[in-house]
């Protein structure tokens, strides 16, 4: 496990400042994007394609740190490393944690600043 | 600025595009490498922000293709990455990336990077523009030089540089190095050569060379001697060249009849006369270059060297002795002297000099800025007059006339009346094509009258080298004592259709001479270099219809008939046939 926060409130505030009216669009975009990424992770795992798994995790990690979800980003990094090291046998655990953390983040984002 | 963003994550792309737009730039967004490459050509972005990992074509490959498309244009390429592995980051740069931006994006860093790359881009752009401008200007300069060269060639032409007794090396664009080489046949036979080296290079040198060519060819054709041509070139250059610009030069005149060469060297390396018997005579610079001294202080006095057929003269610009080997050592005038001293029998100094220079510099071709010219003295170089001159465009001109021209006293010493007299005769169209013969007639008459009639010099002296210099010393001295003397030319011309008759009577104030003795010499008994006056009369006899000697031998009259060749009349109706009279 990692001890990073679910949300980086400071980063999110800055994003809100930058995006202005489009902040909500950004959040919805991120959430949709993330669901696609989680699906690709699942597919890669089902296919036992560690390279694809690692790449999907890497991309997901990038958007998580950008949006201000560091804990989810860190979990993605764990998944990326497993893929790279060809240790997909240990991946289902990380996969579960990613999905759980994503639900958490999604709920928090939707209620951010409300 | 135009910024292309290629990023497959929708949310990341949205954030980045918003940040970049906020900085005031125009943005195009794409979500994979293939699209990035496709939009690059059409959008022509100034900066590309590129995600390293993308579906279809990843950032590395897109970077390579974009760099190839950009060609010489500098388009900064910044990788977007959350890569933490140093090796991966290095690969991004190897693929052509100029920098990377690590997620999460920080707008302060983003702005700083975009600005930094914009500065680099503008600088690169400015440098490329300047480089292209220099390239264009250089191309223009070269094409202008080619045009200028053609104009120059039309003015300077090659004269008689292709004569069999002349050899030379000159770079095709030598006039832009300041070197000029002209050679002309004099109307009565003989050759004048001028080799010049202008200070400076490029257009100024070429422009300065232009009037020199005009003066040289114009005057040589009219029968002026080398000294007169030199004086005129100097006068002209003094007037037109800015201070500090001048022309070093060598003028050589070979008249081929008197077995003498006259040379003048102002500022060029020593010229050399290499005699057939191996003897070498230097022709050092004794004068300031042309265009330095005001006309009244300029001296065109020429060194007179006796020279026999087979003797060879070489002259060069300073590019020759200044040629260097790969260690930067110069060939030097000493090198020239060594080569000439080591000449084998029958070896041509021109060949020897070019061969040794080639060996010395180690380059197959001599450098661009040197000119080397050699002239071989040939027997009786009164060459058949070229009838290749442009056909007469008009047959009109004076046909019936008479004139008397008399020069007296000091003028006998400082003035050459031949060009003027030739000019008068050349007004008659039928004589124009015979300028060489007319010049020979006039000069034989004049030289006989001056040297033997007025100055009473004996042509016997010129048969030995010692007598030769005595002859010229005496000539110079006696020219200072000519009070009361004169030479009078009477010229008459009458014409019939297509033909005419020129009478020239030349009378001098001398005591005359025993014409029977002098005139009776047959050419068979007269070896080369003997009996100039006798030979002169022989030439006159051969060329004219009648030759009469009046009084005590101080008045010679000749009658010269001419007819128009049929085809020259044909030139009237536009035919450009140039066949010789049959």
Number of DSSP helical runs of chain A: 5
Unreliable parts of chain B:
381-394, 516-532, 567-582
**Second CATH tier, the architecture of the largest domain in chain B:** 4-Layer Sandwich
- Give the radius of gyration of chain B: 38 Å
Instruction: Give the rounded overall mean pLDDT of chain B.
Output: 83
The major pleated sheet of chain A works out as:
none
Structural class of chain B: alpha+beta
Could you describe the largest sheet of chain B, including whether it forms a barrel? 5 strands, parallel
The CATH topology of chain A comes to Four Helix Bundle (Hemerythrin (Met), subunit A)
Helical run tally of chain B: 17
Protein described:
The complex is a heterodimer of chains A (114) and B (582). By secondary structure, chain A is mostly helical. Chain A has 5 helices and no strands. Chain A starts with 8 loop residues before the first helix and ends with a helix. The mean pLDDT of chain A is 90. The model of chain B is unreliable at 381-394, 516-532 and 567-582 (pLDDT under 50). In chain B, the strands form 4 sheets. Chain B has a 5-stranded parallel sheet, sandwiched between helices. Chain B has a 5-stranded antiparallel sheet with strand order 6-15-14-11-12, with no helix packed on it. The longest helix of chain B is centred in the N-terminal third of the chain and has 50 residues, at 107-156. Chain B folds into 3 domains: 2-127, Response regulator (Rossmann fold, 3-Layer(aba) Sandwich), CATH 3.40.50; 157-376, PPM-type phosphatase domain (Phosphatase 2c, domain 1, 4-Layer Sandwich), CATH 3.60.40; 401-573, Heat Shock Protein 90 (2-Layer Sandwich). Chain B is elongated. In chain B, helix 5 (107-156) packs parallel to helix 6 (202-221), helix 6 (202-221) packs antiparallel against helix 7 and helix 13 runs antiparallel to helix 16 (532-543). Chain B is of the alpha+beta class. The A-B interface holds A 11, 14-15, 18-19, 22, 25-26, 29-30, 32-33, 55, 58-59, 61-63, 65-68 and B 8-12, 14-15, 18-19, 22, 51, 53, 80-83, 103-105, 107.
